[in-house]
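Subject: Protein record for review, amino acid sequence with backbone structure tokens
Why sent: The fold of this protein is of interest and is recorded here as tokens.
Enclosed: The protein record, placed directly beneath this head.
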Amino acid sequence: MIGLRWLAILGLLTGVALLKMIELGPAKNVNLMGLAGLAMILLNVTYLLFASAKRQYGKTELVMLLNIQMVIDLLFLTFLVHLTGSEESPLILFYVFHIILASIIFPGGFSYYYSVLVIFLFSGLLALGHIGIIDHQCFFKEIHLGGDIRYAIAIWFIFVITMIVAAYLAQNVTQRHRRVREKLEIANRKLQEVNKTKTTFFRYASHEMKAPVATIQSTLMVIDEVLGDKIDDRVRDMAKRAIGKTSEIIEMLKDLSDLTYGNLQEHQETEELDLKSLLSEIVADMSAGAERKQQTLTFQEPAKPCPYSGNLDALKKIFNNLVSNAIRYTQEGGSIEVQLKPSLDRYTIEIIDNGPGIPESEQVNVFKEFYRTPSAKEHVSEGTGLGLSIVERMVELHSGSIQLISHDGQGSTFVVELPLGEIL
């Protein structure tokens, strides 16, 4: 309201200056219009000071304050209409703006109330002028239309119709807008509730299903280890395939659990940790898997600790996933290196392997959900294609970035950058 009023004041004072320049209208009336503009400036400054107090208003109080401003503005406009010739005044069309504004700001049928108020003010102005209680201001010196009652009635009739139609159109449009917005808000709340329920179920189901599947897998592994050569080759082959399938299921459940993690942790709490110690622990935990494939897994760490503020669970998932992927897709006897490079405003973590690499044509899709490159499918059959998309989401939750540098047959490097933020 205050901002719109500044524009109106600017337009009024510009109009006054223009009228003086072209010598149109009685000088007294033009001067009074300028004084009205100054009075509006003082009033608007008062509104501005009142608003800058940053008080918390209730809905009823706020509506009352807005209505007071609107009514005072209409009184100023009616005064300006009087100065510019009443029914002859071109300013009467500005009443429409107030009706439209009322329909936008206020709910219900406020635009109709304001259309009645506008009609009352304009009708009263015409009546007072033609009765002789106030003098009719002939703003256009060469034109004396105000003395003809027929012209006044015609202008009054057109004005009333215009105000009613403007109120109807404005109210109709804003009511439709409000109804659509309310429906969208209700639909959005329902979708959020459904999504929350679905996410909770997926997380619960994936967590609860992992234990029995892991039990089945360990049972099969014990059977295979204990019986060994005592069982038929066909049975042993089936047992090994069953062990492989349970591994796929466990990986899928893990990815499903991680996928829901991002939805639940967008407003997660952070904690102070040492990124160097975290990566050292992850590399140590992954060493057994690398040794089984006769791979070399090393950690190139800085000399000093690397303090960082982040979510421990998410960071573990990020680097566990990247290092385990490097081990899984690198051939036996290969090498994987984890590097941590601190700088003034960020940490750069690189996971480097000398595996088969990823062709450039496939790199654009590696962070998409459920996407697995053809070369990945050739090397490892199991996998959901969710791992890297989950990693990217968790990195973004830390305001970081991740990129892939790879060439077909020349290995891959995943580069994670984590800004220090408040640590500095």
